[in-house]
Design goal:
Blueprint (H helix, E strand, L loop, with lengths): L2 H22 L1 H4 L1 H15 L11 H13 L4 H13 L3 H18 L6 H8 L6 H9 L13 H8 L11 H15 L3 H17 L3 H12 L9 E9 L6 E9 L8 E2 L3 E4 L3 H15 L7 E7 L12 E2 L7 E2 L6 E5 H4 L5 H13 L5 E4 L7 H12 L3 E5 L10 H11 L4 E5 L6 H11 L7 H15 L12 E5 L12
Parallel strand pairs: 1-5, 5-8, 9-10, 10-11
Antiparallel strand pairs: 1-2, 2-3, 2-4, 6-7, 11-12
Helix pairs in contact: 1-4, 1-6, 3-5, 5-6, 6-9, 7-9, 7-11, 8-10, 9-10, 10-11, 10-12, 16-17
C-alpha cells in the first residue's frame, strides 16, 4: 500500500471513529438538541450545513464530518460547538482527541504515526504540561484536559505553536518523553520514539535542528527571573448581589504576555475564599516545575476592594493554615477600570511615569474630605500633577459612597496606577509613619517590594500578634495596563 493510500485509510478510520463518538452523543441523537447544535455550528462556520431530517443518523454524521474536514479548523469548531452543549462529556473528550489526531496527520503529511502510539500511551498525565512547556519554549503553558497520555499531548502539539523554521514542538516533545522513558528504565520504548524522530528529521532535513535542540535540552534549566502571574477576577453576578463570577488566567510565558484563561464559576460570596484556595492548589500542581516567582493579582469590584484577600487561607484543612501573603506577593486591581476603556489613556500615561521616571514620581496624600466638592478638587489636583502616580487614601473604601471609594474613583479617573490604604483606619499613626518611610525619597518603582517588607514583619509576629502590626492591614492597588486578562472561558 502506498503512503497516499495509507494516509487515506487513516483518515477514513478517523472519520468512522468520530461518527462512532457522535452517535453516542445525546445531542446528536435528539432532534431539538441537534437542531440547536447545528445552528451554533452554522454560525461558527459561516456557511450552510445540511440538516438531518431526510437521512439516517450515521450517514448524515459521516457527511457532516467530511464537510467539516474540508475547511481549515472546522473539525475543531465541530467539537467546540458540541462542547458548548455537553461541556466536558465523555463524547466531547473523545471527539477532541480524534480532532487532534486528524490535525497531526495533516501536519505530518500522512506519515505513519502508529509506531508512536504504544510507547506514548503508556506515559500518564503527570508532568506532561511541564514537558510541553519545555518543548515549546513556554509558548504552550498548559495542555487541555483531554490530553490524558503522552500520545494525546503529542497529537495536540503537532503543528501548534511551532516556529516557522526549526524543530516542530511535537518532535521536541517526543525527544523529552524519550529521555523520561530512559530514566524510567524503558529503553526499547525510548528508542522507538528516537528512531521515528530521526526518520522524520531526515525526511524534512532537520537533522541539525534536532541535534541542536537535544544539546540545548540537556543543559541545566536556569530559573527565570521573570515572574509568573495568576490573575483572579471576582465579578458581580448582576442579578444576585451575593453571587460572583470567579474567573482566572495563568501567565508563565517568559517571552511575552500570553495569559491562559481557566474556567469561570458562579459562587456565593461566602464560597469565594475556599474556591480561591482550591484554584491556587490546582494551578500550583500544574506549575510544579516552574522556576519563576509567582505573583497573585486580584481583580476586584468596588464592594470587594477592602476585602483582605491577601490574608485568605491556604492549607485550611490542616491544623495550621497559612495566609496567601506568606507565599506570594499579592496586589489588587480595579475591575471597574478594566471595564472602562475611556479611562485607559490616562492610566497608560501615568503608568509610564511610574515605571520610566520613577525617581521623579511622587505620592499624593489625600486629605480627609468634609464635603462632596472636595472629591472634585482631589480629581482636579491629580490630573494637574502629572508626576503623582500613587494615591494614599484618607479612609478605607469600605462603604458605598464613602470617602474611601470617592477617593479611589478620583484616582481611577486621573489614571493613577497605584493606591494604598489601611483597611480599617487610615489615620493610624503607625500606618502614616510606615507609608512615609516607604515612599520617602526613593521613587516608587519598588512599591510592591516595600509593601511586602511590612507584611513579612507582621507575619513574623504570628497569628496571635499580627493584627497589631500595620503590615497586617496594608492594602495596595497596583494596576499595570500592559497586563490585561483575556476573555474568560465560560
Amino acid at each position: 500500500m502506498s503512503e497516499e493510500q495509507s494516509a487515506a485509510r487513516a483518515r477514513n478510520e478517523l472519520t468512522a471513529a468520530m461518527a462512532d463518538v457522535l452517535q453516542r452523543s445525546a445531542t446528536a441523537r435528539h432532534g431539538v438538541a441537534r437542531d440547536l447544535w447545528l445552528d451554533m455550528l452554522r454560525a461558527e462556520l459561516d456557511r450552510p450545513v445540511e440538516a438531518a431530517d431526510q437521512i439516517a443518523l450515521r450517514p448524515w454524521l459521516l457527511r457532516l464530518i467530511k464537510t467539516c474536514a474540508e475547511g481549515r479548523g472546522d473539525l475543531a469548531r465541530l467539537a467546540q460547538t458540541l462542547q458548548y452543549l455537553e461541556e466536558n462529556s465523555t463524547e466531547v473528550t473523545a471527539l477532541w482527541q480524534l480532532v487532534d489526531e486528524w490535525d497531526a496527520l495533516d501536519f505530518y503529511e500522512g506519515a505513519d504515526l502508529r509506531p508512536l502510539r504504544t510507547a506514548l500511551q503508556g506515559v500518564g498525565p503527570a508532568g506532561l504540561a511541564a514537558l510541553a512547556r519545555r518543548a515549546s519554549g513556554s509558548r504552550t503553558q498548559d495542555l487541555p484536559p483531554w490530553c490524558r497520555t503522552a500520545w494525546h499531548a503529542f497529537l495536540h502539539l503537532a503543528g501548534g505553536n511551532s516556529p516557522a523554521d526549526g524543530l516542530p514542538v511535537s518532535m521536541a516533545f517526543l525527544a523529552l518523553v524519550a529521555d523520561r522513558l530512559v530514566e524510567e528504565g524503558q529503553q526499547p520504548a525510548a528508542e522507538s520514539l528516537r528512531r521515528w524522530n530521526r526518520e522524520r528529521a531526515r525526511a524534512w532535513s532537520l537533522e541539525s535542528e534536532l541535534a541542536g535542540w537535544q544539546r540545548d535540552a540537556a543543559a541545566p534549566v536556569v530559573p527565570s527571573l521573570i515572574p509568573a502571574y495568576l490573575l483572579i477576577q471576582l465579578a458581580p453576578d448582576g442579578l444576585d448581589p451575593e453571587r460572583y463570577h470567579l474567573s482566572h488566567w495563568r501567565q508563565s510565558d517568559a517571552d511575552g504576555w500570553h495569559p491562559v484563561p481557566g474556567e469561570s464559576r458562579l459562587l456565593h460570596r461566602s464560597e469565594l475564599s475556599a474556591a480561591v484556595e482550591q484554584l491556587i492548589e490546582v494551578v500550583e500542581e500544574g506549575w510544579a516545575d516552574l522556576r519563576a516567582p509567582v505573583i497573585l493579582e486580584f481583580i476586584l469590584p468596588w464592594e470587594l476592594l477592602n476585602e483582605p484577600v491577601e490574608w485568605w487561607p491556604k492549607e485550611s484543612a490542616s491544623h495550621v493554615p497559612t495566609p496567601l501573603v506568606m507565599d506570594y506577593p499579592v496586589v489588587l486591581r480595579s475591575l471597574e477600570r478594566l471595564r472602562r476603556p475611556a479611562w485607559h489613556r490616562r492610566w497608560r500615561l501615568q503608568w509610564r511615569q511610574l515605571t520610566e521616571q520613577s525617581v521623579g514620581s511622587h505620592p499624593h496624600w489625600s486629605r480627609p474630605a468634609g464635603r462632596e466638592g472636595d472629591f472634585y478638587q482631589l480629581e482636579r489636583e491629580l490630573k494637574e500633577d502629572q508626576q503623582a502616580v500613587c494615591l494614599v487614601l484618607s479612609a478605607p473604601p469600605s462603604t458605598e459612597g464613602g470617602t474611601g471609594r470617592q477617593e479611589i474613583l478620583a484616582g481611577l479617573r486621573a489614571g493613577l496606577p497605584a493606591m494604598i490604604w489601611h483597611r480599617t483606619n487610615c489615620e493610624d499613626p503607625a500606618f502614616r509613619e510606615a507609608i512615609g518611610e516607604m515612599l520617602e525619597d526613593r521613587g516608587l518603582g519598588n512599591l510592591l517590594e516595600r509593601v511586602g517588607k511590612w507584611r513579612k514583619e507582621a507575619l513574623a509576629l504570628g497569628p496571635a500578634e499580627w493584627d497589631h502590626h500595620v503590615g497586617r492591614h496594608l492594602a495596595i492597588l497596583l494596576d499595570d495596563p500592559d497586563r490585561l486578562p483575556g476573555p474568560a472561558r465560560p
